[in-house]
């Protein structure tokens, strides 16, 4: 089981994504699609046997995410690999998450 790390600062975020493969969920409490996606993300993290970190960024509490990471829509899921963005998906995040975990697991 992999714990989802709640990112609370830009410094924490930059340190986290620099460490290896990280999947980040950008969300907001008022976002209906984010609430629908949350159980899928939690399930993927819980079932993951991969060497993959799962993190979560509340864009309301962390405005730097919008500015520095260019998050324009939520939910957005982004895959980082040692600080580099490998892929980003907005809105169609459930199929992306399934594909990502299948590809990395296989």
Short description:
With 106 residues, the chain is of the alpha/beta class. The chain has helices spanning 10-18, 32-47, 64-69, 93-105, and strands spanning 4-7, 21-27, 53-58, 76-81, 84-90.
Polypeptide structure, described:
The protein is of the alpha/beta class and 106 residues long. Helix content is 42%, strand content 28%. The protein contains four helices and five strands; from the N terminus they run βαβαβαββα. α2 links the parallel β2 and β3. It starts with a strand and ends with a helix. The mean pLDDT is 87.
Question: Could you describe the largest sheet, including whether it forms a barrel?
Answer: 5 strands, mixed
CATH class descriptor: Alpha Beta
What is the N-to-C succession of helices and strands? EHEHEHEEH
* First-last Cα distance: 18 Å
Q: List unreliable stretches of 5+ residues.
A: none
Secondary-structure blueprint:
Layout lengths: L3 E4 L2 H9 L2 E7 L4 H16 L5 E6 L5 H6 L6 E6 L2 E7 L2 H13 L1
Looking at this protein, list some descriptive labels.
106 residues; alpha/beta; 5 strands; 4 helices; 28% strand; Glutaredoxin; globular
């Amino acid at each position: 089981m992999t714990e989802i790390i709640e990112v609370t600062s830009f410094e924490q975020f930059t340190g986290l994504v620099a460490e290896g493969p990280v999947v980040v969920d950008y969300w907001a409490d008022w976002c209906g699609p984010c609430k629908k996606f949350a159980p899928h993300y939690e399930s993927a993290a819980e079932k993951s046997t991969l060497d993959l970190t799962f993190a979560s960024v509340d864009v309301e509490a962390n405005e730097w995410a919008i500015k520095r990471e260019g998050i324009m829509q939520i939910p957005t899921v982004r895959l980082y690999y040692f600080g580099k963005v490998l892929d980003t998906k907005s809105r169609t995040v459930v199929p992306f998450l399934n594909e990502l975990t299948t590809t990395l697991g296989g």
